[in-house]
Amino acid sequence: VEVRVPQGLYIDSNITTTLGTSEAVSLEPGVRHIAVEVPGVSTPGVYNVTIRLGPYANYTSAVIYRVENLSVVAPSIVPVGRPVEVKLAGYVTPRLVPLVKVEVAGCGELHDLVPINGSLTLKFDKACTAELRAYTNASKAVATITWASLRAEVSYDKLGILNGLPVFATGTLSARALLGDRAVNASIRVVGFFDKLGLVNFTVYVEHMGVVNSTSFVGFAAPRDSYLAANKTAALLPPRAREYFLYLFEKAVATGDWELVDGISRLYSAPPTPFALVARYLIGRDLSRGRDPNIYVAEVLQRIEPFALGIAGGLTLVLLRRLF
Hints:
- The protein is of the alpha+beta class.
- Helix content is 26%, strand content 46%.
- It has 5 helices and 22 strands.
- The strands form 6 sheets. It has a 5-stranded mixed beta sheet, with no helix packed on it. The chain has a 5-stranded mixed beta sheet with strand order 16-17-22-21-20.
- The chain starts with a strand and ends with a helix.
């Protein structure tokens, strides 16, 4: 209630209404605003109200309304920079559109009046969580909205590191979209070379709720079995041979050409037969001298070994028969 007191007039009286309220006031010249509670009214509707202050009276109408099922409707998490339409829902008796106080805290301070069943738009360009409170004098609703970073996560089975870049097993690359720490359904697009051996370089683009972000990846793809076998072979070689073999090993990882390294690994994983030992000697000699070994000669020795041993065994048997 607004009361305007003229100059020279001082009032000490009760302000009363036909809604059953009475409050003592002491007024000096000027304009005063007095809040009048109406606790005795429990039924929504339009009321004709008489307001009295001493000998003065004012006649007006007051709408007493009830808000039921007040709620704040908004997504719980969105990408940073995404505008969010926050809807204020509720049922009002009688049917009118009152304003509801809305407060926002956490990402920034905001105080606003929003019509019931109306909306407001919020947008923040940083990762944060905002708490929204909508309330009337008799009801309250709360909601939380998190603005989180949208990113692409690249996963793989890591085998090692070369020149500061990851070496991963072929066939194990995968990508997913994360909103904060939560996986979300998003459009994923890969641009670049990823389905090959050796150096791979690609960019993963993710799009969610109209927001696009990207992650770049650089690494080396290697066959798991070849990589593990080469590691075992390196441990079996003498120090001088190992140094050049590791060079060949790294070259195979970088280029994707594993033919020579695989051949050496097969030789050192094979049973130590006489010809295999000779082949290992030849390979080790070349590696110790810092040159690429002739793996084909070693493989030929292994292939002819059964025939050579068979011939040698036959000759030995003939000789024994002649002697005995």
